[in-house]
Amino acid sequence: MSSPFFIKAKVNPKFAKKGKPATVLKRKGDGDPGGKGKPRAKKLISKHNEEISSDSETESPIVARKRQTIERDDYDETPQEKKLRLAKLYLNQLKEEEDDKAEDDAFETDLVAGRLQEEVLEQKGKLQRLIAKDIMAPDASEIRVLRGHKLPITCLVISSDDKYIFSAAKDCSIIKWDFESGKKLHTIHGGRKGTEDRHVGHTAHILCMAISSDGKYLATGDVNKLIMIWEANTCKHLYKFTGHKGPVSGLSFRRGTHDLYSASHDRSIKVWNVDENAYVETLFGHQDAITGLDCLSRECCVTSGGRDRSVRVWKIPEESQLVFHGHEGSIDCIQLINEEHMVSGADDGSVGLWSVNKKRPLSTVKQAHGRHGEAGLQQAHWVSSVAALQNSDTVASGSHNSEVKLWKCGQNYRKLEPLFSVPVCGFVNSLKFSSSGQFLVAGVGQEHRLGRWWRLKEAKNGIYIIPLKRKPTPSPEEVKIAE
Questions:
Q1: Could you tell me if residue 131 is inside a domain?
Q2: Cα atoms found within 13 Å of the Cα of residue 255, Cβ hemisphere only
Q3: 377 is in which domain, residue-wise?
Q4: What is the pLDDT of residues 425-448, one digit of tens each?
Q5: Given the DSSP bridges, would you call strands 292-294 and 300-304 parallel, antiparallel or unpaired?
Q6: Count of CB atoms within 10 A of residue 478's CB?
Q7: What distances in angstroms separate CA 324 from CA 305, 309, 312, 355, one per listed residue?
Q8: DSSP conformation letters of 20-65
Q9: Which keywords describe this protein according to UniProt (predicted)?
Q10: Number of domains in the chain
Q11: pTM (2 d.p.)
């Protein structure tokens, strides 16, 4: 520790060069007689009596920060400056919120524009979602079978939310199933022949059924020329429509409405208003029993005309029809893909792809399900049912050759290409895709829904739920590796 009577003096560069001591100690008052003058170098003494030269040492960072903090604290912001600062902060916050809102609005606008464009394409019949290339064949162990009907299933429908399946059979019964659990939620038992006056329900083979797009009404038609209307939620009987003079073979609700179209072996189409429990009108044109009917949101429907070998598009308001020919046998089933295209199946074994703007099929696959019989007497397996995943490029067909076939529609629906087959033993009398496209449901029986030409004893009457798996989407890393 240095003596309190000595302080550090500045180094004289002359003496430092000549080997003189770098530090010279001076007494207080040296060069200032009496010690009354000021020292040449300022001195700061710490608490521990340490000498610090203000001329030789710079201010430490810590001290500098503390000094700046003190100076900032000592600064008093005027009310006007505070108002200005807060106003700037508020304006910046408003600008950020406006920018975020503009981004959200732009995103929502894009979504709405996309939906509107899809709706326009759907109305024009030009919407085609290309999903067939991604669908994979399921394993046999993944297919679920629901059994409850005693006789062959003839028809089925799926609710628009994919939660429920309704099925009907030749035993005159209707069953409501829960899709997830596969359990029966409700059963409407059929009655015996001759009990029509006292039995609430069908007493003859049910051939067709339809459900409204809002899931409110269920309609069923039977061989006794009757149409029954049920409340889909509770399976309560509501109305009975009479008027057809032959078995009711086709039913369909116009999407978004409660207008019901029905087709019959009496060769007529009838229009009903279910809300009003009212008959509207009848249309004629087919030359043979009508075997199938379908419609979407337009005020029109399509029908298959059985042995008259025609497909017809009915324009309800104009009471007019368009006639199409192409199959060589009885056309037993038909389904709309979108408002402009449809698929049909016939007992000559062919599957046809149609446009409402062409009188002939855009594409026809002959012997779609192969042939059967002895050599020289072979004939094609009848196509007993078809289904279409709406507004997509995927369709399905069923026969009695122990398989359901899935097909891909080519560009602009100009071609049908086989995708894969799913093993199903029995007559596939009905096929329906779920609205989501996640599964396909097949109604299977030992006999054809319209007759008893063959009986497959090894088949079991039931509902087959076939999952439609999608191919996994490759990750960006996998894409880079592939490239």
A1: no
A2: 15
A3: 142-467
A4: 999 999 999 999 999 999 999 998
A5: antiparallel
A6: 11
A7: 10, 9, 6, 10
A8: --S--EEETTTTSGGG-SPPSS--EE-TT--EE-TTT-PPPHHHHH
A9: Acetylation, Isopeptide bond, Methylation, Nucleus, Phosphoprotein, Repeat, Ribonucleoprotein, RNA-binding, rRNA processing, Ubl conjugation, WD repeat
A10: 1
A11: 0.73
